[in-house]
Design goal:
The protein is built from three helices and no strands.
């Protein structure tokens, strides 16, 4: 039953909307259209309206400092494992650059494969 009512309401709304759209568009077109032979009227000079004397001056509100989010504290110190991983990556990167410049990188090997092998080798050495 409620589905039938909802469909009826939607259908009724669509019919009412369709009936009003053409007149709304026609009124809009008529209001904004200017015939090509007619020029738009020149703007009249604005006359200054006298300022009301009963209005009290408005006080400016003070601007609050930006308190949206607190700034994070200093970065956490790296764990020993993170430090070791960073050192291994730096060492492997240096090896990769020298091997690549010397043309000693095996054919088809890219950085991820080189990094994987180098990281395993350095871990086995205890670095």
């Amino acid at each position: 039953m409620s589905l039938r009512i909802a469909f009826f309401c939607i259908a009724h709304f669509c019919v009412a909307l369709a009936a009003t759209l053409p007149t709304a568009f026609a009124a809009l077109a008529q209001a904004t259209a200017t015939p090509p032979t007619q020029t738009a009227p020149a703007a009249k000079p604005a006359t200054a309206a006298p300022a009301p004397t009963t209005a009290a001056p408005t006080a400016a509100k003070p601007v609050a400092p930006n308190t949206a989010a607190p700034k994070p504290a200093a970065a956490k110190p790296a764990t020993p494992g993170q430090t070791a991983a960073h050192q291994r990556q730096t060492a492997c990167g240096a090896e990769w650059r020298t091997a690549k410049d010397a043309g000693k990188v095996p054919a088809g090997q890219k950085w991820p494969q080189f990094w994987s092998a180098c990281n395993k080798r350095l871990k086995a050495q205890g670095k």
